[in-house]
């Protein structure tokens, strides 16, 4: 059994109103056997999905020109269509082999690189978000004038050498959703996707997307990523409102996915 070091049993890192909850540290600190809340359809197949943009590229390559035109016309509002079309054109033409490291795309999406040299991690952040101080957070960015939409990172010492020692991505996702459902404020929680990718130097990175319906803020879409390096657990949590009356826009989703995919160890210089 693997236990985290120096992390209280009920460790919670929470942001409410101008904060969103991040309870992954509790989940990873308490590896206990809990009932499976999910049906077989909840998770993707055993073969875990690649980053979403790669899947989009493969799907685009398999459709004909008329279908591509329909897809283009359906993208976003007219206000954001120009940007969506430019990204889609790159995908269709196959000229965007690695979106996570593509500086041109980051500029198009108005993303800036943030690196914490002390803790040794890096990620992209939207220009519409501002860095704020919050107890318990290694770093926290909030959307200006809408702090409930935020991006936070927590770094915690552990005894793990890698996430694989704790469990599979699906196992961790199971624990995350169980933790969400135990909160009094949670009305419902559902896993959308689970993935694994390689980070800097072959680092094992888990990615999760799930939605939570809460009495505190309504429906939220959450993107999370986690990795372990040098006996430290790195957790990224991206929370964004996804209410029925104002659902998450395609353009905003693209930005948040790029932030998610950018979370990695900072290269040693």
UniProtKB/TrEMBL annotation:
- Coiled coil residues, start to end: none
Q: Which residues form the PsbP C-terminal domain?
A: 111-264
Q: Name one GO cellular component term.
A: extrinsic component of membrane
Q: What InterPro entries would the database entry show?
A: Mog1/PsbP_a/b/a-sand, PsbP_C
Any idea which GO molecular function terms this record carries? calcium ion binding
User: What are the recorded Gene Ontology BP terms?
Assistant: photosynthesis
Entry-linked NCBIfam families: PSII_PsbP
From the Swiss-Prot or TrEMBL record, give the protein name.
Answer: PsbP C-terminal domain-containing protein
Q: What is the source species?
A: Populus davidiana
